[in-house]
Amino acid sequence: MFVLDTQRRPLDPVHPGHARRLLTQGKAAVLRRFPFTIILKDPGHPAKERPLRIKVDPGARTTGIAIVDDASGAVVFAAELTHRGEAITTALDARRTVRRSRRKRHTRYRQPRYANRRRKKGWIAPSLSSRVANILTWVKRLMRRCPIAALSLELVKFDLQQMEQPEISGVHYQQGTLAGYEVREYLLEKWARRCAYCGQEGVPLQIEHIHPQSRGGTNRISNLTLACQSCNRAKGNREIQEFLQRRPERLKLILSQARTPLKDAAAVNSTAVAAL
Question: Whole domain around residue 241: which residue ranges?
Answer without folding.
Answer: 160-267
